[in-house]
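Lab notebook, bench 4. The sequencing result for the construct came back, and we need a structural model before the next group meeting so we can plan mutations. Quick request posted to the team channel:

Model the 3D structure of this chain.
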Amino acid sequence: MPTTGEAERLVHDLEVFLGPDDVELFPAWETLPFERVSLSVEAMGRRLRTLWRLRHGRAGVVVAPVRALVQRLGPHVEDVEPVVVRPGDQLDPVALVERLVGEGYRREYQVEHRGEVAVRGSIVDVYPSTADGPVRIDLWGDEVDRLSAFSASDQRSRADVERAELFGCRELLPTKEVRARAAGLVATQPWGAEQWERLAEGQVFDGMESWLPWLADRSTRCSTCWPRAPAGGPPGPRRRGPGGRSRRRPDRAGRASAPARPGWRPGRRRGRSGRLAGSDLGGEHRRPSRPPACICPSTTSCPAPAHRR
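Done. Here's the predicted structure in token form:
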């Protein structure tokens, strides 16, 4: 779509017919280059979820503005996997919090906004980046005893949920590869030494995605995560001929690609009237509809049929 507003309106219309689970919006970065503002947590989570569904073939319809298709993605963003939590699963709360913080979540005393996580004894509260509300994970040792949704205003549990998908909050993460590359840019690109040092130390700050072209070796875009088509391409349409058998016309490469039309023969071309040039469907030569023009000066001895008396 040309703009983000038109893409959002199309998504709302498609959800009425297909359902919210079969339509995905891939939002674009609405920030200016080198602006010290990052995309919202919800938009970054939706981008990661769309890429994950595209990679696994679970995306029904994906709507994206043109700007989102040409923008570069973070390094290894196509390998992102969500944290899936269900009741009865074995879960280490310390490892869970460390992973969520490493993916861009902020650890707070109380969860109130998207991208926050809080730990209170055996309870882990998380506000996923793609969910409409926070989720409470109640543990009994290392087992998930209860998984419920709660209100961020009064912190009271509402209803139990069967499954929770926790996607990351940032596309650009301070991994070892990114930190090493940022450390090398301190000497080669001194004009951005302040930002390179912060990235080399593993800090997460707003606007860090603006430095992505210097931190990624390869250019990854949304189109690289689309499922690949078969090598031979989709098969051509089939048309049933006499006897119920499908007939196809061979192309130049010797493979059947297009259906054979009734009356088609190799090496023959059709004229403007739709009949075979030089012959009819039966193969017999047809006579001209009009007699040939007479050019003789005398009409009494002309053998033309029109001059015979």
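Confidence is low (pLDDT under 50) at residues 229-236, 273-285.
Will bring this to the meeting.
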